[in-house]
Amino acid sequence: xxxIMKRILVTGGAGFLGSHLCDxxxxxxxxxxxxxxxxxxxxxxxxxxxxxxxxxxxRHDVTHPIWxxxxxxxxLACPASPVHYQYNPIKTMKVSVMGAINMLxxxxxxxxxxxxxxxxxxxxxxxxxxxxxSYRGSVNPIGVRSCYDEGKRAxxxxxxxxxxxxxxxxxxxxxxxxxxxxxxPYDGRVVxxxxxxxxxxxxxxxxxxxxxxxxFCYVDxxxxxxxxxxxxxxxxxxxxxxxxxxxxxxxxxxxxxxxKTNSNSKLIHMPLPADDPTQRxxxxxxxxxxxxxxxxxxxxxGLGKTIEYFASLDLSKYRKPTDHTAHKNTIAxxxx
Length: 336
Ligand code: NAD
Ligand code: UDP
Hints:
336 residues; Rossmann fold; globular; UDP-galactose 4-epimerase, domain 1; binds uridine-5'-diphosphate
């Protein structure tokens, strides 16, 4: 153990990113409290940690206050995939805003450092490309993605107001599309959908013409960025983009997945969900300069590890968190 042992709370700790973060913190010898209500995850993501004396699992909803004594908080609790966060949009806004207020209050009382998992969605459907942190975004305040986008924007506001008004020691990271083992197989995100479809030989569902772009970061790279920001100097609090600048069209991703799985699946087109951003790519100049961070894992390599993971899953052990699909929220359905 090289660092000083800290008591660390990870909200959303049983989720995709949270479980990888808990792994790293437990391994470093910290006393870790993983808090989750299991809306979009399950205990299987952290079951291997339950034997560790420095790991504790708490079932709790962040929209309600909680009384704990901790040195650091990573606030990750929030449904993250469009089908999950659009299922109950009012709850999504509550999780972002009330969750942030509750965790910032806890940080203030304990004098804890607190980290917020924000998102590239704060840039909306961007008209500046790639997106630097100084870009203020182009977000629809009343659309089907707004519960998440505006919720995360409001959370950032709260973090910076607690920082300015109450001297709370904050860190804010804007995460771009991240993938890897332990993504929920039914989260409806593009990487998990395409891999499962390819492995089963089903049609690959491209929404719209597939020319929209995303930049995909492998989970290990992302968690390295989280730790560098949290453990870095107090005069660099973010917001900072953490993502992989390698930009791909959704059609290119589909073709890569088919090739890597040796699948016979065919590409089919389905309606584009409303407000689906046309392009997304992080400008990571700030992360390079202040954190000496940049991603190491290329999409091709990370996809290989993710395919291996999905191929090994027993899907009968996974419950679909919601029956919501992207096609309940297409442009035609919204009349806009
Ligand atoms: P995830 O759905 O796997 O994890 C979210 C976790 O939060 C789940 O375990 C879920 O059960 C939990 N949760 C949801 N509502 C809760 C509540 N009210 N109380 C307690 N726990 C609750 O998603 P993820 O990809 O691991 O995302 C983690 C964080 O990172 C989220 O805040 C998300 O917005 C952010 N983020 C992720 C990505 C990405 O590409 N993965 C991109 C941008 C931002
Ligand atoms: N997408 C797709 N087919 C799918 C799932 C998603 O074409 O089966 C598209 C979606 O319309 C979007 C991109 O892939 O343009 C990324 O979607 P995802 O839900 O992973 O995350 P987003 O970046 O939109 O939040």
